[in-house]
Amino acid sequence: MIYTTPTAACSPSAIATPALFGAEILSLSASWVNNFTLYVPATYNYNHGDQSVQNVDFCNVTVTYTHPGYDDHITVETWLPRNWNKRLQATGGGGWQAGRFVLSEFFMAGAIGEGYATTSTDAGLGSASEPAEWALKSPGNVNLEALHNLGYRSLNDQAIIAKDLVRSFYGIPPLYSYWSGCSQGGRQGLMLAQRYPQAYDGIAASAPGQSWPEFVSAVYYPFLALAWAGEASPLSCELDFLTAEAVKRCDPLDGIVDGIISDVDKCDFDPFTAVNKTFSCSATGSTMRLSRAAAITAKAAWSGPRTISGEFLWYGVNPGADISAFGVAPGQNSTSSQDEWFNLFVAKNQSFDIINSSHEEYDWLFHLAVQEYTDVIAANDPDLTEFKNAGGKLLTYHGLADPSIPTKGTEHYYREVSKIIPEVQDFYRYFPSPGLAHCSGGRGGQPTTLFDALRTWVENGTAPEFLPVQVNGTGGVEQDRILCPYPAKATSRGGNGSHNGTWQCVH
């Protein structure tokens, strides 16, 4: 049933000011946006597919507020479509942005195109795209108010404000409320399930950076491993060659040769076996030998950081992921780690450079980061009992070729949840996706039906047994596949594996 609202409903005088405990509402603006039209590609519409939004009218309500004593200024933007499906879909952010950023128009447009009321928050960070703009109040003093808002505080505020606006504008509360996000938005979704279990009925939290201090600290390890070895940076094309060699060795392990590593746990390719192999570098247009520096970099990227004594610190990315960013273009001397974590938040000194650190110093800084910021921004508490008891449903996917956030971190989190709640599949399912990069891209495998599956689970009680996807196989030929809920794996029933009907989920 579609709920239609009159034009007069969209005005500051007609919309009640939201009630937010512990906050002061500073302003509320409201105005109609008419005939909104935008093509939203699945590439920027995570958890959803392509969406062509045509001539939608919606009321844009923008609320600004502050938490007295915290010196913050937060903005929540909510779009209320004239023709409403009686549901709310909140959207998340990406990178260091909570929302209201460059991709939010796609996220929110996709939602109103399907009739949802939708909302986004900037967590008080404004238009800042990088933390350098807000992280430090002064050298040695982190802006903890901003970090707390990004980490968790603004998330519950967003839910409360959006639901109040929906109730005031339409005269009824949403029948169901959902969260949809990937990357930072995935971390936010898990944080909501952990800290605010009644905020949303269903949460799509994909490629989540749940263990934020660990994974951002791990990003620097390949650069450091190279520096500690006294080697110059490899060319990016060398790392591309090593990735191709890993795929060549490990692609067949699932029984289908398609250019994709599906069973990463069985992949035992050693990059040092390729040192001195010759290959054609596309960047130079010439043949060259693979350097030891390239093998060191790939090994560090795939293994993840280890202490100086070889102890595990965090996971690495999977072989098959694009690690070319750890290399350089011809003519460059070295890569830049673009440190914005250790210098701003750990050393609290913008001139600090992690690349000059010894292995012992890195180990200490890694542990310090985890100790200092887990409670603020990590979303890795595995006790989802209250979310389950509230009837919430949680779905997530993660690309096995993600070069940014290691999938094994998501697998680890899922296993930890299952230790506390053995019946975890009753409310939480995680779908690893072979060949998929970060949120989208790579060889494909983006599950564009995940949000629809979440809604069906929440509203009809039907849990998804698999998700259909399409991948670009050998020679760029598009093939139908399925994603299975972890720990099940997709296994071919026979044939060429090009149709999803030839696959089944096997535990």
TrEMBL record:
Coiled coil: none
InterPro entries for the chain: AB_hydrolase_fold, Tannase/feruloyl_esterase
UniProt cross-references to Gene3D superfamilies, sorted A to Z: alpha/beta hydrolase
EC number of this enzyme: 3.1.1.-
Superkingdom classification of source: Eukaryota
Transmembrane annotation, as ranges: none
One Pfam family this sequence matches: Tannase
Keywords annotated in UniProt: Calcium, Disulfide bond, Hydrolase, Metal-binding, Serine esterase, Signal
Protein name: Carboxylic ester hydrolase
Organism: Byssochlamys spectabilis
